[in-house]
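Cross-check.
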Amino acid sequence: MDLKRFIESFNRAVNGIISTVKMERNMKIHYLIAVTVLILSLLLNFTKAEFLILIFAISLVLVSELFNTAIEKTVDMITIDYHPYARVIKDISAGAVLIASINSVVVGYLLFFDRLNPFKDIVLQRIKNSPVYLTFVALLIVILVVLGLKSKYHRNKGTHFQGGIVSGHSAVAFLIATIISVLTNNLLVITLSFVLAFLVAESRVEGEIHSTRETVFGAIIGILVGIIIFQLIYK
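Predicted model, tokenized:
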């Protein structure tokens, strides 16, 4: 598979995810809960194993909802008249989502309850020396925010990576530059990081994929997330 076909397949996959978020109310709920849980996880002292379990639980719910939506749309497409098996198929796929959701609730309870009851300020201190974890969560939050905005304001032209109200490339580039500026005192490294971020944003405008306003919007999102997470938590 050449690079062009790989990128096209990747874009189509993302289109499928965003289309599900736009069409399905339950997917919107799962999406908001995922963002909330990821933000909340910043305040807690998760081990690597616990964090992997959390990510798996979130992914399982989202994947189950994607399959459920695909099955429902397929049944609606091929079935004109009422058929008892059509209802059974939809109920079974909905049952898969229910099981995944119950699993996520159990996982969330086991991971969060002891840490939130009672919640102590000392928990914040435990993650202040974990830039790798904070960076990973910051990237996930930026990506989810960008996907959410693209889902709501997509112009129905091209893929969701081609244009939109905000430039995801610009957001990620400026987030990384902001994180680097917090983690190092080397002015040259900081300057080069923001120069590279600017070049990424400029390339999106030069390629006529985004307008200047959209890349600036992306840069603001990336910088704000970086500042909020690293300046307020990592010290």
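The chain has two domains: 12-126, 128-235. The CA atoms of residues 30 and 172 lie 23 Å apart. Passed to J.P. for a second look.
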